[in-house]
Amino acid sequence: QHRVQQSVLSTQSTVSSGINAEFGKQWYQRRVRGVKVIREVIREVAGFSTYERRVIELLKDNKDKRALKFSKKRLGTHMRAKRKREEMQIALQMMRKAQAAAS
Known about the structure:
By secondary structure, the chain is mainly alpha-helical. It has five helices and no strands. The radius of gyration is 21 Å and the shape is extended. The model is unreliable at about 1-5 (pLDDT under 50).
């Protein structure tokens, strides 16, 4: 009997269905939006970590492939490294825009 209960629980999914199917999606989108705001605030206060600064330096020197390899070494997976390199490229662009606006 206990095994049957476990198998029933394992077949249930977190995808909502029925009349209120959109409720789960809306809740998730609100949650993600809040997380993004929190991460932006933390980034402003704390700045970049040491390895992120090094990735930015590599990107400044147009060494995109080396930045990807370095990120992969630090983060562990290729997808995470690609995402981090893209994030750092956007941050570098924002810094350049801020410098151009200041001068």
